[in-house]
Structure formats: structure tokens, C-alpha cells
Write a structure and sequence with these properties.
Elements (H helix, E strand, L loop, with lengths): L12 H13 L7 H14 L3 E5 L2 H11 L7 E5 L5 H8 L3 E5 L10 H6 L5 E4 L11 H11 L2 E5 L7 E2 L2 E2 L6 E5 L12 E5 L2 H11 L5 H5 L19 H12 L1 H18 L1 H5 L4 E2 L6 E2 L5 E4 L2 H13 L15 H5 L8 H9 E4 L7 H15 L1
Parallel strand pairs: 2-3, 2-4, 4-5, 5-8
Antiparallel strand pairs: 1-9, 6-7, 6-11, 8-9, 10-12, 12-13
The protein binds pyridoxal-5'-phosphate (PLP).
């Protein structure tokens, strides 16, 4: 029986040609012609004024908390149900991550719970758009404005996803997208820092160039560059930018091929959902998703055995985020079991099914049939 992997990036001859083209051309560094072009392309695609390519989404998030003029001891609200990237960014800048609960159907930040956690020291919030499905940004932006909070969107999973007319990552002050090999559009490793604010853009540009004004030098605005502020080295190589450029050209195709798999799962699993045997991830009206993840939630008592049975059938399904508040690091910060019941249940009941552009319909249907057999 053929194994169905969980994920597989679509790499074709044009990606290979683009990368070898840069290798032959000799400009291997970043902040160079290909990266510049890709930044312009991304600005057009997402409809934002400024995009900076970075070495990862994690680095874009680190840059975001650095350029917002937050102070040590300031509190930043973010969901426990996430990757450690945003929490690390907050910690590394000497600030305090404050976890919040997610909504049970989308596993996105719960605006009501977020509001409850605002104190006199809260300065920012980092909503994470899970699975390429938008958080309730209307509510989150409204609460944030009222409380004077900056919004940094962790849109790591969201290339090609929208909330209403707005691309995810363009709604808050700053957004961060990932081009990691497991995301919808890949550079192997890589990320984008997005903003409409010119001052934040310039600060981030300096931060990613070792705290120097090298970008102004490259633009011919000054005749030598120097150290002007604290910074790091977060510039993406043109080799990876070339791979990303080809992938971005295929964005619609990559999204619609994932959408095809998503539709097969949604239709095929509807009966199991009405029988109460599983719950399919919700997509609210205001979202245009990019089908990054397809997840179901099953009875936590059965979850591991369902995963085992899928594996025996040659299907690589998997769980997701270990709640940050229950991690070794989270417990050291004083969080405890029971602090976020929805997050904890989500972690124990979640199964992600394989989804990638080259997954044939017949295989997606075999996965549906296998789940029907296992759950009945
Ligand atoms: C993938 C991911 C990240 C990390 O992205 P990198 O580009 O690998 O740093 C951060 N947050 C979320 C929600 C992710 O899914």
C-alpha cells in the first residue's frame, strides 16, 4: 500500500532553474535584486505598503516586538495554543507573555478572553491565525483600539488567506508570514515582515541589517553605512528569494489544489460529524482561507488509537501544538493544568489530515473512507 505523507512541497523544474540561476549569477546575499523584486511582488499580492523578506517568520515577529517601542515588563497577550515563536519574541525583548484562550471551533484567539486579560501593563496582542483561517479581527481590532494595544498578526500559516477583503498580516500594525518548507508557499526557510507604517518599516529594515542603515546606502541615499541602532542579521538570501519568487507565481494554483482536498474532506466527513463522531474545523463567514491545515477533533479518549489506525493504513495524520502554558517553559512561568480548558481539550482531541497540492483525489477519498471505517 502506498504511504500518504502528511505534507509535501510542490517543487518543479522552474524552482530548480531559479535557484541555479542565482548560484550562477553570483549574488548570493540578500537585500539584492531578486529579494527586492520579491518584496515588491509581495506588497502587491497582500496589498500592503511595505514588505521586508526575513530569514523566518520567527525573526519577523522578533523584529516586530523590537520596533514597536515596547518596554521591559510590558505585557503582551497571545494564545497558548500556538508555536513558541511569538512567545519567544516577547520574552527575548524582556517583556511578559500573557496567554489567552482560543475559540473551540476555529482554535483562534478568543476576543472575550483576550479582553479579560488586559491590565494596566498590557501594550500589545499577537493573534495567531490558525490553519489559514482568520481570527475575529473585527472584534480584536476594536478591543485593541479601545485599550491602546498594538496588534502584531502571527500570519505564519496564512500566505494567500484573507479576512474579508484584507490579506492576513495586513490588518494589525505589523504582520508576519512564514515560508518554511511546511507552509503553503515555501522558500525552505524564510519569512516576511509586513506593515503599512513607514516608520516601522525603516526601523525593521535597520534591525534586520545588523542595526545599520545599509539599505539607504544600497539605495544611493548615503555614501557609507554605519551602526545606528541595536539589530541583528535577519536578511533572506537571494538564493531562497528566487525559490520563493517562483512559488509566489503559483500561489493561486497551490491554494486551489489544497482547496480541492479540503472540499473532499469536508463533504466526505459530514456524516461522521452529524453522528457526533468528530468535529470539523469551522470557517467563519468573513474568512477566505488558504487551506493550510485540515483538522478534525475527536473524543480525546479515542484520539491516539485513531491516529494509530490511520498510520496502520499508511496515512500520516498528526496532532498539533502542545499548549504553551503546559510546556516546561510555561509551567516555569507559573501556568498550570486547567488554566485554559478549551486549549487543553483542543490539544487532546486534534487530528490534522494530510493536505498538499499534489495529493490525488483518490487518496483523499481513501483517507475519508478509512476514517469512516475507524470511527464506526
Ligand atoms: C510555522 C509557524 C511559525 C514559525 O515560522 P518560521 O518561519 O519557521 O519561523 C510561527 N508561528 C506559527 C503559528 C507557525 O505555524
Amino acid at each position: 500500500m502506498q504511504q500518504i505523507p502528511f505534507n509535501k512541497p510542490l517543487i518543479e523544474q522552474d524552482e530548480i532553474d531559479a535557484v541555479t540561476g542565482v548560484l550562477r549569477g553570483g549574488r548570493l546575499e540578500g537585500n539584492a535584486p531578486v529579494s527586492k523584486r520579491v518584496e515588491k511582488t509581495l506588497e502587491k499580492i497582500v496589498g500592503a505598503k511595505f514588505v521586508l523578506l526575513m530569514t523566518s517568520c520567527t525573526h519577523a515577529l522578533e523584529t516586530a516586538v523590537r520596533v514597536l517601542d515596547l518596554e521591559p515588563g510590558d505585557e503582551v497577550i497571545l494564545p497558548s495554543f500556538s508555536f513558541p515563536s511569538a512567545a519567544n519574541a516577547v520574552l527575548l525583548a524582556g517583556m511578559k507573555p500573557v496567554f489567552a484562550e482560543v475559540q473551540p471551533d476555529t482554535l483562534n484567539l478568543d476576543p472575550e478572553d483576550m479582553e479579560k486579560r488586559i491590565t494596566g501593563r498590557t501594550r500589545a496582542v499577537i493573534p495567531v491565525h490558525y490553519a489559514g483561517v482568520a481570527c475575529d479581527m473585527g472584534r480584536i481590532m476594536e478591543i485593541s483600539r479601545r485599550s491602546g494595544l498594538k496588534v502584531i498578526e502571527d500570519a505564519a500559516q496564512c500566505m494567500g488567506a484573507y479576512c474579508g477583503q484584507d490579506a492576513l498580516g495586513t490588518i494589525g500594525e505589523i504582520g508576519a508570514i512564514s515560508f518554511h518548507a511546511t507552509k503553503n508557499v515555501v522558500a525552505g526557510e524564510g519569512g516576511a515582515f509586513i506593515t503599512n507604517n513607514e516608520e516601522l518599516f525603516h526601523k525593521a529594515d535597520i534591525f534586520r541589517e545588523k542595526g545599520t542603515n545599509r539599505s539607504r546606502f544600497l539605495a544611493g541615499e548615503i555614501d557609507k553605512y554605519s551602526w545606528v541602532s541595536p539589530g541583528s542579521s535577519y536578511v533572506l538570501s537571494d538564493i531562497l528569494a528566487a525559490l520563493l519568487e517562483v512559488q509566489l507565481g503559483k500561489l493561486d494554483r497551490l491554494t486551489s489544489q489544497r482547496g480541492r482536498v479540503d472540499r473532499i474532506y469536508r463533504q466526505g466527513l459530514l456524516d461522521l460529524e452529524s453522528e457526533g463522531l468528530l468535529q470539523i474545523g469551522a470557517v467563519p463567514q468573513y474568512c477566505r482561507p488558504n487551506y493550510h491545515i485540515f483538522f478534525i477533533q475527536v473524543d480525546p479518549a479515542r484520539r491516539d488509537s485513531v491516529l494509530r489506525s490511520l498510520k496502520e493504513a499508511g496515512i500520516q495524520a498528526t496532532t498539533h501544538f502542545y499548549p504553551l502554558h503546559l510546556s516546561e517553559m510555561g509551567r516555569r512561568m507559573g501556568w498550570r493544568e486547567g488554566d485554559f480548558p478549551v486549549t487543553e481539550t483542543a490539544f487532546r482531541s486534534l487530528i490534522r489530515l494530510p493536505i498538499y497540492p499534489g495529493l490525488p483525489d483518490t487518496e483523499a477519498m481513501r483517507i475519508v473512507e478509512t476514517l469512516q471505517r475507524i470511527l464506526h
